[in-house]
Amino acid sequence: MKYCQFCGKQLEDGAQCTCEEAQAAARAAQQVPPQAPQQVPQQPPQQFSQQYAPQQAPRQPSEMQQKAKAAASGLWSYLKSYFASPAQAVQDSLARQDMMVSILLTVIRVLALGLAIFGVLHKICSTVVSAINEYSYSRDAVKVSAPLFESLLYGGLIAIIGMALFILVVFVAAKAQKSTLSLGGAWQASANNGVLTTALLLLAFLLSFVSISMALTFILLAVLSSVIFGALSVQYTCPGSDSGLSWLVYFLGAAVVIFISYKFFPTLLFKAAGGIKMTVGKESMTLGTAMDEAAKGFQNAFNGASFDEIFEQMIESAMRYGF
Question: What is the total count of domains within the chain?
Fold first, then answer.
């Protein structure tokens, strides 16, 4: 037996109550069929695919790297055109006012001379060390090292002063022909036309590890080439500079440059050599310091006289005693 859930009337099995509430519930059940519970389809677990992985953008070169690459490319293009036709290459560079190529060639030449001087000093130091250690009976090994910083510094000063003097000579020789060449143009022409000089200095640096005489020979050839190519720079910048006046002005200026170099450049070379460092055991001293101390002791022995006075005294003594 069961009962109506609305009115509580006792009902037989399978019978339906006739009350209004039961009838209304029966009609509502017939109009709206019961909905089955919806099942959400399960998706397979997502797997990481390299195809959909976030890709990093390619790294862009910095502005400095781009400028360095452009400068190297411009220098290489100029060198190819220079070996094809030096005069045309120099004239085209002046017309474009390509300052970067001139700056690079100037810096390379300055460094090349400093490296050549360092190479010569390094070879001298190696020879001295080999000789000392071969004939020395001391337990302390002797080390003699060439100065890289002093070589680059004073070698660079020599290169800069020499280039500046020749640039001035080229400018004056061009003005003697009433040329419109500016001082900056003279610098560009001299720098861009100094490819062979720079190459000889770099070869001198490489040969210094083999032979001192070969390195010095190539340094002298570089100096000679700077004189010759200076005259060519005048011709490249002044087409009508083949007159006698232009040659006279240039070679007089070159003679003045050689005289100034002879007077002042040895002092800078001695300054570079003064940085040579000798180490015996735990004690070390540079050649410049040793020379200064020796000079002070030598002057004290002669009552503080200068080197000129000491030399005069030595000559007088030699003549007095008939040596």
Answer: 2
